[in-house]
Amino acid sequence: MRVAISTGGGDAPALNAVIRAIVLSSLQRGWEVFGIKRGFGGLLGEPNIVSMDRQSVRGIVHMGGTILGTTNRGNPFHWPQRQSDGQWIEVDRSTEILEAFKQLALDALIAVGGDGTLHIAYDLWKRGLPVVGVPKTIDRDVAGTVITFGFDTAVNTAADALEKLHSTAESHERVMVVEVMGRYAGWIALSSGLSGGADVILMPEIPFDLEKVYKAIRRREASGRRFSIVVVAEGAHPKDGAITVKAQGTAGGVERLGGVVDLVAKAIAENTGKETRALTLGHLLRGGSPSAFDRLLGLRFGAAAVRAVAEEKFGHMVALMSPNMVTVPLEAVMGKPNRVPLDSDSVMAAREMGICLGD
Ligand code: F6P
């Protein structure tokens, strides 16, 4: 067997653990393994693929990022191409991917990525590519799996930041508004907000009413708590307003979210009279050494993906259905983001503790 690995979309802590497990379990089976550099793009033009041995994955489990590189502008079905007049257009280069795959005599592809990458993997599988997916996202918004690697590390980083902000918020009697990643799902905001001691948590799943936020801050003020910590997911939006877009998507790319933090901070300052500061944790949440939980999950996902290839479970992704690793048809999870259920235990816990969720 000749197996290839690619990592696509935004990076996430523990991608390297996944790569290591894929390489070692493939070698253990006597297979050859190749790494495709920079997402699916590594199969286009000059193929950018490297043979992987034990040495190539030595000492990488604790490292952030991906040793294979990645891109979120690498959709072969919507490939960005610059015209002679400087304009960008999107072209379908999927046939070239299938040809490159054949030319390199590869037998299977393990595609590690979020919803976008898994969608591409699914479309390539429908066109005959033997592919197994591995779900990856710090946002935890891929359906069909209880959790994705990278999420735990991101939550730890965010909770740590919230905890650090408490002392300065309290000293200055300020409101600190913190934006965290989470396009369609508020898992990071909710989990870090709960564990980092936030007073207000705003998520995409609950369009917020700023009046409720002011009320919560005033209530704290009246009880002598003259500072507040507000966590807002980048995809959160007011109940009668839209998501805040930082930049429109260019050819081959999606729109960039961000900036809701400024809207919320300004409104709080104007309506409560409190001195307010805004900060965005952004890509900090994607960096750093993965937590032990994420390392283990990444290794388990990687090994399970190789098992799935051995069982010819193409068109599937591996998933954690605690305590088991299972395979799920990609078709079943496409375009169905895993959002925080409003009746979930964490949401109930937040409400029961008096944390304002903006509704
Ligand atoms: O991985 C998903 C994510 O973290 C989203 O929460 C965020 O909107 C996006 O990545 C940002 O990605 P980039 O700035 O790298 O394009």
Secondary structure: helix percent: 25-40%
Number of helices: 10
Inertia-based shape? elongated
Largest sheet, spatial ordering of strands: 3-2-1-6-7-14-15
Task: Write a structural description.
With 359 residues, the chain is α/β, with parallel strands linked by helices. The chain has ten helices and 15 strands. The chain has helices at 15-28, 94-103, 115-126, 151-172, 187-195, 210-222, 260-272, 292-310, 330-333, 345-352; strands at 2-7, 32-36, 49-52, 79-82, 88-91, 108-113, 131-135, 175-180, 200-202, 228-233, 245-247, 256-257, 276-280, 316-321, 324-329. The strands form four sheets. A seven-stranded mixed sheet has the order 3-2-1-6-7-14-15, with helices on both faces. Strand 1, helix 1 and strand 2 (32-36) form a beta-alpha-beta unit. The longest helix is centred in the middle third of the chain and has 22 residues, at 151-172. The chain is elongated, with a radius of gyration of 22 Å. The termini are far apart. The mean pLDDT is 96. The protein binds 6-O-phosphono-beta-D-fructofuranose. 6-O-phosphono-beta-D-fructofuranose binds next to strand 12. 6-O-phosphono-beta-D-fructofuranose binds at residues 10, 72, 114, 137-139, 181-183, 234, 256-257.
List key phrases describing it:
359 residues, alpha/beta, 4-stranded parallel beta sheet, 15 strands, binds 6-O-phosphono-beta-D-fructofuranose
Task: Explain the layout of strands and helices.
Blueprint: E1 2-7, H1 15-28, E2 32-36, E3 49-52, E4 79-82, E5 88-91, H2 94-103, E6 108-113, H3 115-126, E7 131-135, H4 151-172, E8 175-180, H5 187-195, E9 200-202, H6 210-222, E10 228-233, E11 245-247, E12 256-257, H7 260-272, E13 276-280, H8 292-310, E14 316-321, E15 324-329, H9 330-333, H10 345-352
Helix pairs in contact: 1-8, 4-5, 6-7
6-O-phosphono-beta-D-fructofuranose binds at residues 10, 72, 114, 137-139, 181-183, 234, 256-257.
